[in-house]
Every structure is written in structure tokens, then in C-alpha cells.
Description:
2 domains
Amino acid sequence: MNLILLGADDLIASDHARVTDPRRLRHLREVHRATVGDEMTLGIEGGVIGRGRLESIDAESAEFSLRLEHAPPPPLNVHLLLALPRPRMLARSLEHVTALGVKHITLLHTRRVEKSYWQSPELGAEKIRQHLILGLEQARDTIMPTVTQEKLFKPFVEDRLPDLMTPATRGIIAHPGMVNACPRAVSEPIMLAIGPEGGFVDYEVEQFLSAGFQGVHLGERILRVETAVTALLARLG
Amino acid sequence: MNLILLGADDLIASDHARVTDPRRLRHLREVHRATVGDEMTLGIEGGVIGRGRLESIDAESAEFSLRLEHAPPPPLNVHLLLALPRPRMLARSLEHVTALGVKHITLLHTRRVEKSYWQSPELGAEKIRQHLILGLEQARDTIMPTVTQEKLFKPFVEDRLPDLMTPATRGIIAHPGMVNACPRAVSEPIMLAIGPEGGFVDYEVEQFLSAGFQGVHLGERILRVETAVTALLARLG
């Protein structure tokens, strides 16, 4: 926790917070080894960040006085369309991309996504939220990403994808063997599509290209999805 | 395995290989569901890559006829100086950076590296080699990285670091709060220093800066080491 993320429930006054859940308390006691008087970085979910002073801590709660005055870091202007990874990689990928500042994530079914992945408990709202929180706490951010699940490829690409694109949006599909190298430091909003292990099938690539997406590659090397996601976001951002 | 990496022991003729170890055999049978006649990508450790035809497969061995004709993908010209991560993150980081094409990795002790990490079985030569192989198999590469362990910061930075730098080498230390953003698409050879969770201490940063390193940051966000490593390599490469 490089930032303690406060929910509305944690605020007992506009400048005072009380943390009572076991996860954060344990982290404060065991990792931070926090003692009264310590200064830490805190932020309100969806809002400002700043510093807080630990006023009391025991086995049940920790109380902070707050001076919250900064905006959170700017978001990465990328909507990530990610073929649903297998559950363990999903968990890590959600943390990575949240830490990198992505605010819109669509998990997409594609031909090479195993259908069983959609049954994973990792897709439960509370599980996903836990990984997003870890990403925000890591990166010192407060703005929760939205995560949407699209279990049918064709209706998504044909019906809903056009509505997610503004005229300014640059659609990019990352796929080995595309002609162009991934562009760098793109200033427009981006819609970035990344396939599953094994890649998109040809039909899917064609659907994205017909929707105006540009195909890009990251070189000859085949990367794991979690490596590729971070590498693409770092290069585009 | 996007590539089956063959050691000298696996070659039974210049154009014929036999794989007998349980890990690769299991992968061929259970993941690839390989059957006689299948064409696959293979490569010789330290050498060429190409295609092979599966000539036979059973519980004890798989035999391939080979047409090896391509050079492996070009390496990333970055020597990575990585403060030793905790064991689980080390394993993943070795795979990521190998897949990204790094060929020289120095694991370094710094003030905020827990001393106990140096006792981890993950640092055994055979364990490290396994992770490097996984990275090569993932990225379809054959050139094994070298991994050096430096358990004393000061003698390394003062005595050995200068010998690792050529006049053309650009030294870069990634550290939150540095003035310059990480440069993009650097063409010179790079020596890239990345700190542990919690970062380098001021003294260490100063040592690198005195050695001619340039301090760079990746933005306001604090990233986990494994995310930062991939993001930095993607941006520099």
C-alpha cells in the first residue's frame, strides 16, 4: 500500500478517517509497522489524495487526521479490450493495468479463450474490485476503473464497439505478424485490443480491421499476455 | 512453448532431435496434443531456429526431423541491473525480461533488499536456468541470458560497474522523483538500474549518478518492480 484508499464508510469527518477492515489494519501493523504520529499517503476513492497522520491504532481500528489536497495522477487514455486471460493471469493483469492508469477495461470472449474461464470466481465483482484496489494502492491513485464483461465476440464488435469509439479514438489491435510496429506516445484516446494466449483468429483480426483498427506488432518475440499488456501500454502512453 | 529449445544432448544428428525429459514431453502431449506429422518451431540453444516435423512420440520420447535456418530474434541491447526482488517476483521477472530479449542480467544487493532473499533456492543456478528457458521458449529465442549475482553494492558499483560500461553505453537509473521522463527508443547500448520495492536509498542513487547514469522516472505512479521492468524495457527498446 503506497496509498491507503478510503471509502465513504471510512470517513468519520471530512478530515478524519477510521480504518477497521482486517486487510488494511494488518498491512498497517505488519508491513508499515505504523505507530501513532506516522505520516502516510491516503486518498478517497474517486477523489483527492494527500497526507494523513496516524492518531491511534490498535487491533480494531486505525484513525487518521487528513490533509487531502492533490488530484490523483492523470489517467492513461486507453480503453483496454482484453481477451479474457486465464484466471491467475487475469488477477495479475488487472493489477498491472490499474497501476498503469487504465480506467476502462473490457474483458472479451474470443475463439481461443477457454469457455471455462468465464466460470471462474475471479470474475466476481468483489474479486475484481480487490485487484483494482491493489492496483490503485500500488500506484497512488483513487479513480476506480470500470470492468465490463463481454461473453459474445460478434455482438460486441458489431453492435457495441462502435458506440465506445469517438471520432477521435484511435483503434489499435496488437497481433503478431501485423505490418506496423506499435506506435509510441500516442496523444489521442486509444482503444487497444489484445488477444488471448494463442492470439486472435484471422476472422477476429479482420473484424477489428474492418472496424477501423490499426494492426500493430511488438516485434518478432511472442510475449505472454501480461508482459504484452504492460509493454504495449508503456509504449503507447 | 512457442519454441522447443534443444540442447546439444537432444541432437541425435544435425537434422534430427530426440526429446526425452518429462517437462517438454508432457507439454507436447498435454498442451500441444502433438501427433506424428505435426510441424513445430524448434531452436538450438545458442543457435538457429526453424521448423521441425514430429516423427514419433510416446511416453518416453519425441523425435523430430529439423529444418533450422533462421537466426534467433535480435537481442535487446540492455544490461539490466536489478535489485534482487523477492523470490516469487524474481522468478516472474526473469521470465519477462528474457522474453523481452535482455541478455545480461545482474542481480544486485541494495539497502532495501531483504538479506534473506539471497538465501532463496530460487537463486540456484538450475532454478534460474529454468526461468530463463521458459522466457526463451515463450519468445522463440535461443540465446541464453547471463545472470550474475552481486551481493555487495559498493564494490560492485565502484570496481566492477565501470568495466561493464563501454564509452558508448548509456547508463540509466529508474527512480521515482527523478527530473527526466524515461527516454524512448534509445539506440545506444543501455545499462539500466532498477531498485527494489521501496526504491534505492539516496546514497545509492548518488552513486549511480556519479558513475554517469542519468536518472529517469516513469511518471507519478509507483509501479511494482515487475511492471516497472517491463514498462521501462518496452519504452527504451
